[in-house]
Write a structure and sequence with these properties.
Blueprint (H helix, E strand, L loop, with lengths): L2 E5 L4 H16 L3 E6 L1 H7 L6 E3 L15 H31 L3 E5 L3 H9 L4 E5 L13 H19 L14 E3 L3 H4 L8 E3 L24 E5 L9 H10 L6 E5 L12 E4 L4 H4 L5 E4 L3 H9 L4 E3 L6 H10 L3 E3 L7 H13 L1 H17 L1 H20 L5
Parallel strand pairs: 1-2, 1-4, 2-3, 4-5, 5-6, 6-7, 8-9, 8-11, 9-10, 11-12, 12-13
Helix pairs in contact: 1-13, 3-4, 3-5, 7-11
């Protein structure tokens, strides 16, 4: 059996797919460990997970409201990804020394994982939890691409002693992409990218939910802006709640920031929802086009209304629309009438659900956690064969 180390950023949407793959590897008898934010990992991967704690940056500035385009990309790299890699590096190095993995699985936004695995000469595979990087968002911005390259060179010098040369976002040993061609569209991807579909493993949850509130005779829509958009989402959630006042459908709204006050009687507000358990019992999803929420929705063959806020979300939203599986709203202009009209259309026009079901079929066929684990096992076997029986 082999040892696999997962290196992940402190972001729920990046941990969850990795947790599905890790659970599959553990079920096959392999050893699994994590390097990342310990409290989040014990919450999402389970309290028994072997976690090597990594520090978080001490002084990441708050993201300015309304940041878009190149300015948003600059903030992501300069103020989040690079400082995060520097903070995580000692913890990742300690994990490599103590756990001695045969394969490192490094998230695209946990740059320390790929850089240090490369520097140590270890085989590593990239975990791409969003398809945004796969379509090369910097292709039309060569100066920005060069700037990102210089940041990576500087980071490699600081945390890896200048050793290694691979781009930590795209391992030469393979990239696990949790999507399929039916959602990704015709974009060209590198030969090493494996389109494995969503990895939806069992997810620990202590979230209480009033299941009896759901009415099987009335359509229900899940409304969620994810876990990282509380500050930006107050106006949108308020408009969404108002939109359902004039609709026959019901809504379950995830409101982690407690921004909503009084809502119509056909709207249920909860600080957290058991999303994977809830999705089979709803009819559509209104969300921010986060890649995980979109893929989990489409896994169940459900149509979407997407209102992207930032980062990769516009790219994912465009994929949903191009596939015919939903409608897109402008986040800043999504008032109650626009939301109501979009929700009503995806609930009543069968073409959206048919397109979602086509994507769902491709997701199930792709293999998800099992396909990803199979690829990782192959990488580990090649490494073990190279090491020989006396050095494993």
């Amino acid at each position: 059996m082999a040892r696999f180390l997962f290196v992940v950023p402190p972001l729920t949407g990046h941990v969850n797919p990795a947790a599905g793959v890790a659970a599959e590897l553990a079920a096959r008898g392999h050893e699994v460990a994590w390097a990342g934010h310990d409290e989040l990992l014990w919450q999402l991967a389970g309290p028994e997970a072997l976690v090597f704690a990594c520090a978080l940056p001490a002084d990441v500035p708050e993201r300015p409201a309304g940041l878009k385009g190149p300015a948003a990309l600059r903030f992501l790299w300069q103020d989040f990804l690079v400082p995060l890699a520097g903070a995580m590096a000692p913890g990742v190095a300690a994990a490599l020394d103590a756990f001695r993995p045969h394969v490192v699985v490094a998230d695209q936004q946990a740059l320390a994982g790929g850089l240090l695995a490369d520097a140590h000469g270890l085989p590593w595979v990239t975990s791409a939890t969003t398809s945004a990087e796969l379509v090369d968002p910097l292709a039309g911005m060569p100066k920005v691409g060069a700037w990102v390259g210089s940041l990576l060179d500087g980071l490699r010098a600081r945390i890896a002693g200048g050793r290694g040369e691979a781009d930590p976002r795209f391992s030469p040993h393979g990239v696990l992409a949790f999507t399929t061609r039916e959602l990704l569209g015709p974009a060209t991807v590198a030969p090493g990218v494996r389109l494995v579909g969503p990895a939806l493993g069992a997810r620990p949850s202590t979230t209480d939910f009033p299941w009896a509130w759901l009415d099987p005779l009335r359509p229900t829509v899940l409304v969620s802006l994810g876990t990282a958009n509380t500050a930006a989402g107050a106006g949108f959630l308020t408009a969404a709640a108002a939109a359902f006042a004039g609709l026959p459908a019901r809504a379950v709204i995830a409101d982690p920031g407690g921004v909503l006050g009084e809502v119509p009687p056909n709207v249920l507000v909860r600080p957290r929802v058991p999303q994977l358990a809830l999705l089979p019992r709803v009819d559509a999803v209104l969300c921010h086009a986060g890649h995980n929420t979109v893929c989990e929705t489409l896994w169940h063959g459900l149509p979407l209304v997407v209102a992207p806020i930032r980062d990769d979300q516009p790219i994912v939203a465009a994929q949903v629309v191009a596939a015919g599986a939903g409608l897109r709203l402008r986040f800043g202009r999504a008032d109650a009438p626009r939301i109501a009209a979009a929700v009503e259309e995806v609930l009543t026009e069968p073409a959206y659900r048919r397109a979602a079901e086509t994507i769902a079929a491709s997701f199930h066929a792709a293999g998800g956690s099992a396909a990803a684990a199979g690829h990782l096992e192959q990488v580990a076997l090649e490494d073990l064969a190279h090491l020989g029986p006396g050095k494993r």
